[in-house]
Target: Cinnamoyl-CoA reductase 1-like
Amino acid sequence: MEEEARAIKKGSRVCLTGAGGFVASWLVKLLLSHGYHVHATVRDPCDKKNSHLKKLENAMENLQLFKADLLDYDSILAAAAGCEGVFHVASPVPTTKVPNPEVELISPAVTGTQNVLKACSTLRVKRVVVVSSGAAVILNPHWPKGKVMDEECWSDPEHCRMTENWYCLSKTLAEADTFKYAKENDLDVVTVCPSMVLGPIMQPTLNASTLFLINILKGLRESKENSLYHTVDVRDVADALLLVYEKPEASGRYICASHPIKIRELIDTLRSIYPNYNYPNNLTEVDYGHLVSSEKLKKLGWKCRPLKETLVDSVESYKEAGLLNN
Ligand SMILES: NC(=O)c1ccc[n+]([C@@H]2O[C@H](COP(=O)([O-])OP(=O)(O)OC[C@H]3O[C@@H](n4cnc5c(N)ncnc54)[C@H](OP(=O)(O)O)[C@@H]3O)[C@@H](O)[C@H]2O)c1
Model:
């Protein structure tokens, strides 16, 4: 395909899947503020859990909601029709153990992504941005100890299966299939792999990573391990998704992770700002966990905000939503 044909027009018509979710809501807001006309898919446009989208600035003129399920190819095709770009964000992110991972996680992630990609090929979409995850990067027992993980590192599907890490498996298989499909069908696809996404919530429902922080504030976290996490602000993830969409030179996968932090340090930081929550105590040390690098994304021009800002804005938004007692 000619380079010129691939050129992205800023402010054109784009489609975004799973628009009512945590990450996607911020991306819808960002796209609308940049003058894009957004075809946003939700499973139920009448459900009040999606009503926050209609209140966004420029939504009246530039936001159209489409009813679509990832497993219903025709619904995806209809939503993406007329769009230059597609942001595929939707994927199940469980908050508890899932009884039937094949049906509840793997099929919507893998078949769902294939449906989106097929629709994009059919419609000759110029660029597709697929939201993968750090979960598709970090579960790799063969990666050399101490070596920082970059985009070359992939979670090992066998290891995910053996350890019953079904969410990691769903994201790894979906992302690997994405690049296979893109190559075979000459489709311009870029993936972004965010780490643990925190930040203020816009949507009325509780997504998994928001619940992670709320459980820390409430002392409800089940694991007592002092594990290593990489956090990233939801607004910085939205910026990264738009950046890789708009920059013609963007290609391949991009890790999107800003702050490596162990749970104890995260608790200490929160306690220094909010001393009165019921934080977990007596954490046990663990010596696993790798650092990951977002250098590739930074070279493209990505910047991220300080962790303290993310934590304060998160907690204040939970308080405003009545999710914390004080
Ligand atoms: N939050 C994180 O820490 C994090 C980190 C790395 C990557 N990610 C990725 O970021 C994306 C968004 O995650 P999130 O944290 O924003 O989670 P979320 O708020 O739970 O959003 C997930 C979205 O996927 C939609 N969805 C699930 N199954 C679907 C299906 N069969 N058909 C259509 N839509 C479906 C959900 O729609 P309903 O509302 O109808 O259920 C929801 O809008 C996911 O791809 C996730 O893997 C998230």
